[in-house]
Design brief:
The protein is an alpha+beta fold. It is built from 4 helices and 13 strands. The longest helix is centred in the middle third of the chain and has 15 residues.
């Protein structure tokens, strides 16, 4: 049996966004009320998300935890912008409260892993949106060899470059040193 989904033909409000049917076959974001649909991340991208989250979580203070692909309300205006970063560092209290979506000001770190089709959005549009919304730290991970990580810190309303590394990096995250093995995001596991 085939069920036909009727997709909206108008700008969406937050209520419209929440009412959309669940669909895990694609990635969805909302930009000024416009529904943006893209393919789900492929294997290398998914593995990098998982490996980055696994490295980040144990290094965070107990006040924060890691989520992947969670909704962040960048602008809650009449026609909102909702982004879904690959990895987030967020307050543990919000995780415990089982929030469905997050306010941007509550996000400590947003990470985007660059993909074909999203590089410009991640480097330009999200860069400015996340800064304007008050997300304190923004990391971009490029999986092209050699894999690299670029880190930004929000200072006086603008992102300032604080790190640019390949292989291994130690970055300050609100006073906590975080070490990321960047090469491990893309490498094959070594047999024991």
């Amino acid at each position: 049996m085939t069920v036909e989904v009727q997709w909206p033909d108008h700008l969406l409000t937050l209520e419209d966004w929440i009412a959309l049917p669940e669909d895990s076959s694609r990635s969805y974001e909302l930009v000024e009320g416009v529904l943006v649909v893209s393919p789900r991340p492929v294997s290398h991208h998914q593995r990098a998300i998982w490996r980055l989250a696994a490295q980040l979580e144990p290094q965070l203070p107990l006040s924060h935890g890691v989520l992947t692909e969670s909704e962040v309300v960048i602008d809650s205006g009449p026609y909102p912008t909702i982004r879904v970063p690959d990895v987030l560092a967020v307050p543990t209290a919000g995780i415990d409260a089982n929030l469905a979506r997050w306010k941007a000001v509550d996000i400590l770190l947003a990470v985007e892993i660059l993909s074909v089709g999203s590089k410009r959005t991640d480097r330009v549009a999200k860069f400015f949106e996340y800064a304007d919304a008050g997300i304190r730290y923004y990391w971009l991970v490029d999986l092209d060899e050699p894999a690299s990580l670029i880190g930004y810190h929000l200072i006086d309303g603008n992102y300032e470059l604080v790190a640019e590394h390949s292989e291994r990096a130690t970055l300050d995250l609100a006073g906590t040193p975080i070490t990321i093995d960047i090469a491990a995001l893309t490498s094959n596991r070594v047999a024991p």
